[in-house]
Amino acid sequence: MIVTKPYMQLALEQARLAAELNEVPVGAVVVCQDEVIATAHNEVEALNDATAHAELLALRRASKKLGRWRLNDCELFVTLEPCTMCIGALILARISKLYFGAYDERAGAVGSLYNIAEILGEVYGLKVYPEILADECASLLQEFFKSRR
Asked: Which of these is catalytic: 43, 55, 75, 81?
């Protein structure tokens, strides 16, 4: 069994880096057979790309490193519940397990607004583990948005 805390801590480090760069503080880590394959944080502002979410960037980097798009032996750790775009990509990439921190009441697609993982995840074997270090993940987001109001 994988110990989630160190991987989610690494995702939180990525999220903090995003905040320092004035990006929404979301971080993601792809783990394959107990090895960190890729890390990423949101780069929407830096790249002027609405699809530059941490999850998608981490998937792209993992696929490049492994030389394949099927990541069925990989797991993803992310600090915020994925949106519809990101959960769709995770399912299509065949990620086996998704661990996330805070729920996203505004755009979450893994239980908050929708539950695409429940509908499509079963077909592809995705297992979801919510609320890993949820308070710490939520606090980082709250502090970020509070400082911008």
From this structure: 55
